[in-house]
Specification:
5 strands; globular
């Protein structure tokens, strides 16, 4: 199965995004998203600069309607071991959130799809099964 990171979810939602069509093609009924992607997508779409910032309720409704029942959540063990795991891989700062998304997908046996070139280093260093989508 397949999981999407925040970069793909936002691109699929936003018709103005340069990778919108590529991301939309991945939006099949079988795909899931890690729980952190829900939070990050909401935060990004509601704080973007105008004219791209979206109404909070619109984003909340989209997330509930599109992803309700298709969110995978890490267990306490993943959170407890996360600092040690990422430290050993040389992952620091904000990349820790990319690690959380990738490790959650891995825990559930899903390949992670991404548009985020910056996150690739993190995914690779942790042995995440991922695939970058071509823009």
């Amino acid at each position: 199965m397949t999981a999407l990171d925040t970069s793909v979810v936002i691109a699929a939602f936003a018709p103005w995004h340069e990778a919108h069509e590529v991301a939309r093609r991945e939006m099949t009924p079988e795909v899931v998203i890690p729980a952190h992607v829900v939070t990050e997508t909401y935060a990004v779409l509601t704080r973007m600069p105008e004219p791209f910032r979206l109404d909070a309720q619109l984003v909340a409704d989209y997330l509930a309607q599109q992803w309700g029942g298709r969110v995978i959540a890490p267990d306490a063990e993943l959170y407890q071991t996360l600092p040690t795991t990422v430290a050993a891989a040389g992952v620091m700062g904000g990349s820790t959130y990319d690690a959380l998304v990738g490790l959650t997908a891995n825990r559930f046996g899903h390949q992670l799809l991404s548009l985020d070139l910056r996150a690739e280093r993190t995914y690779r260093s942790l042995g995440i099964d991922y695939r970058l989508l071509a823009r």
